[in-house]
Backbone:
């Protein structure tokens, strides 16, 4: 799942470069949009899968905690990017964000 999201973020960066005529601000914006999804997903994986061979109730608690942390981290990172980068291309940022987040849906359709 994380590899797919990273690949889709890379694709969004390439598309942003092509559509914007090579504007680095748009490409960086797309990259940041993807990272706003990818970093919390990595944190989710670390929290949710830290414990193995424990009772199911404990696993469910870990997943709920991981999801809450992922949500808060996504909101905080989005706010930090929007507040910090004055040259941000909103279209590029949202393109990278939605490209990476679509990895969740595509991940369900792909058989391992």
Residues:
């Amino acid at each position: 799942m994380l590899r797919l999201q990273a690949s889709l973020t890379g694709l969004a960066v390439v598309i942003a470069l092509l559509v914007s005529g090579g504007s680095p601000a748009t490409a960086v914006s797309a990259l940041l949009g993807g990272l706003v999804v990818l970093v919390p997903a990595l944190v989710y994986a670390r929290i949710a899968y830290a414990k193995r061979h424990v009772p199911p109730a404990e696993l469910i608690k870990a997943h709920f905690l991981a999801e809450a942390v992922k949500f808060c981290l996504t909101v905080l990172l989005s706010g930090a990017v929007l507040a910090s980068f004055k040259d941000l291309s909103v279209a590029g940022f949202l393109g990278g964000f939605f490209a990476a987040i679509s990895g969740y849906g595509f991940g369900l359709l792909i058989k391992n």
About this structure: Residues 32 and 81 are 7 Å apart (CA to CA). The chain has a mean pLDDT of 92. Helices lie at 2-19, 24-48, 56-84, 90-109. The radius of gyration is 16 Å.
